[in-house]
Structure formats: structure tokens, C-alpha cells
Amino acid sequence: MTKNTTKTAAIAAGTMLFDDWFDPIEDTVRERVRGVIETIMEEELDATLSRPRYGRRKAAGSIADAAPSVGSRHGHRTRMLTGTFGKTEIAVPRARIKGEDGKTNEWKCKSLRAYQRRTKQAEALIAGAYLSGTNTRRVRRALSAVFKGAVGKDVVSRTWRKVKGDWDAWNARSLKDEPIVRLILDGTVVRVRLDKKATSISLLVALGVREDGQKVLLAVKNMGGESEAAWRALLDDLVKRGLKTPELVIVDGAPGLDAALAVLWSDVAIQRCTVHKHRNLLAHAPERLHEEISNDYKDMIYADTKQEIATKRTAFIRKWRLKCKAVAASLEEAGDKLFTFTRFPKSQWKSIRTSNAIERLHEEFKRRIKTQTVLPSAETAAMLFWALLASGQITMRKVDGWQSLAEKPSDQIIDLAA
Fold it and tell me: Mean pLDDT across the stretch 315-343?
């Protein structure tokens, strides 16, 4: 048997694939970047001292508005800086500046912040790679050609934590000027690490629809479950930040959410998600009846007119009271909230019938975290959900039938007599 020595030779040589790819353009640009960065800092210090290196300070009378700062240079210090141009060592000028109190302080460069090791564009690139579905360990391999191995999993984690400032500002932003006419509320389950153990938690998500039909994320929070108190806390926070009472709320039918809405917005129209109700009906029947139930249910829900829907609902209940009483009881439990969409223009029925808009976000979010079986914390899970939208990794289009959102719904509901 012939022995394969290819891998052994590569390891012995200490090289990996792409390591010996030479690009004179890249190498030349990266070499010149160092000089450009150092020139920027030197010019900034020249302006502060009002004189170039080895030069004399200008007379105070020649400077407009105020006399220049008085100080002196005292050498350079080296610093490693990583940018989209790669990793480079630069010489940062140092100086002592005399203050108004007569004391001298170390000059602080505005172009390069204290302790800065990466440019903002480099951090944006790292965070973008992480958000696109790469876990912290794989980002280093994905970006090694750009950063020359300068990015490890700890760097990715620290860069990601810098997003928290934007996350906190987003959570505290005012909703007073948001023209929200419709709310879609739902929860999703994710696994996070709590007390060093993998635990399933519920993220509560609130999606709004503006007057122009554009969907927008309003809130995503870990409230410890989907109880009435949890949903009430989320809704109270939205109201506190200025959210106006919506015309319609689309829900999945969870008891806790229904109870919270009944207390807060008792007069707002509620639409129960028809997809969730379909699942409930199937859960109340043996598997051999699932296909028949699905056919009858879809014929009813997707009928062309309000009258036809009412007729098929009556027929559905009468039929299934005899064949499987639990199925009929489950449909009756939803009442008229399952058919609220019939009060609106038909062009809107598709977008109102279900909470699919938020379900699709859940699916994309779970696809993104597939590379991470367990997330570090509950807050990380909520922040990641938001960041996927805020960074444009996930985009949302307008709802179907948005052109008729200005039309008022009718007060007539379907006939529930059966």
C-alpha cells in the first residue's frame, strides 16, 4: 500500500493552503499604510503644539481666537494596530501638554484612541462575520487571510460586546413617533448557558407594522417565560416608551399573552394565528385523521368570501363534533378571534391570518445560531436577534396588502352559530 506523504510534508514545511500566495499590490499597500497612519498622528500633534517637529512655536498673536497649547515632544511608543489592511506596527508620537493650571499631562491622540488595537472597520468586519453564522472560533480561520491570524475567539467576543452600547440605546429609544398600526407578538425558545448549564429560555418578540406597511422590530426580551406577567412587562415597556394603541394585534393564542392584552388593550382587535390553531386541531386528533382535518380546515380558512368562511365553519364544527369532538371544541375555543381578518380588506387577509412574519424571523435566527448549540447568556440571545436585523443580515419587506392599510375595518364579524 502506498503511503500518502502529502499532509506530512505540508506540516513539516509549516505552511498551510494560501500561505504562499504572494500579491504585490496587497503587500505594497499594507507597507504604505504604516506611513500614512503615522503621518496623520504627527500632523495632529503638530497642530496641537503649533509647530512641526524640530520647529519653533508660532507667536501667540498669529493664532486666531486663542494661544496655542504649550508642550514638548518626548519620543514615540510602538503599538500594534489591526485594520482591514491587516496587522501593522506603528510608532505613536508622545508629548506633554501644559494645561491651564500649569500642570502637564500626556497628550492624547484623537485619531487613535487609548488602548485601541483595531480600527472600527476591522471590528465591523469581525462582527459581520460572526453575525453571518460563524461561531467565535471559526471567525479566525475565515478572516485569517485579511488579518494574518491576528483575530482569535477572545477578540471576536470582545468586539461583539462593544455592540452592547448600541443595543442598550435601541432598548431605550422613544417609540412616540413610530406610526405603528399593527402588532405581531410571539415567543421563540433558545438554549443558553445559565449557571454553567444549558437551559431553554423564551425570547418574547414584538414586531410592528407601520402605516406604510413596513415591518419593524420593536422589542425582543428574555422575560423568563410566556406568562401573563412576562408579556405584560414587555407591553408596559412599549407603552412607557410612547407606543400608540395599535388597530390590530396578531397573536399565537398563548393564554398568558391573551390575558395581558385583555387587561391592557381590551378594545383592540385580536387575530389568532390560523397556523397555530391548525397545529392545535391536529394535536387533538389521531394521526389517521390529520389529512382530513387539514383539508377541511384549509377549505374554511382560505375561502374567498366572509359568508363562505362562515358556512364552512358551521359545516366543520357539525362534522367534527361527531367524528372527533375535541377537534370541534378546539376550533370553537378560538371564537371570532380566528376570523378577525375577514373584517379587513381582502388584500390584507394573507398578512393578517398568521404570525408568519415573525415566525420567519425565528427560523432565520435559529439558522444563524445553528453553529452555536448553546449561547453564552440570555442577554446575548436577545442582542443577537436584534443585531441580525440592525446589521442588515436579515431584512424585512412590507406586508402584503399594505396599499389598503388606511382603510378602516368593518364592525361585522362572521356568524358563529353552528
Answer: 93
Residue 328: per-residue pLDDT: 94
**Does 207 share its domain with 137?**
no
Query: Which range (171-175, 283-287, 390-394) has the least confidence?
Result: 390-394
252-278 tens-digit pLDDT = 888 999 999 999 998 999 999 999 999
CA max distance for the chain: 101
134 and 73, same structural domain?
no
The answer to whether residue 173 sits within a structural domain is no
Q: Give the per-residue pLDDT at 345.
A: 92
Task: Tell me what pLDDT residue 12 has.
Answer: 46
**Do 380 and 268 fall within a single domain?**
yes
Structural domain count of the chain: 3
One-letter amino acid at 330 equals: S
User: If DSSP states are collapsed to H, E and C, what string results for the chain?
Assistant: CCCCCHHHHHHHHCCCCCCCCCCHHHHHHHHHHHHHHHHHHHHHHHHHHCCCCCCCCCCHHHCCCCCCCEEEEEEEEEEEEEECCEEEEEEEEEEEEECCCCCEEECCCCCCCCCCCECHHHHHHHHHHHHCCCCHHHHHHHCHHHHCCCCCHHHHHHHHHCCHHHHHHHHHCCCCCCCEEEEEEEEEEEEEEECCEEEEEEEEEEEEEECCCEEEEEEEEECCCCCHHHHHHHHHHHHHCCCCCCCEEEECCCHHHHHHHHHHCCCCEEEECHHHHHHHHHHCCCHHHHHHHHHHHHHHHCCCCHHHHHHHHHHHHHHHHHHCHHHHHHHHHHHHHHHHHHHCCHHHHHHHHCCHHHHHHHHHHHHHHHHCCCECCHHHHHHHHHHHHHCCCCCCCECCCHHHCCCCCCCCCCCCCC
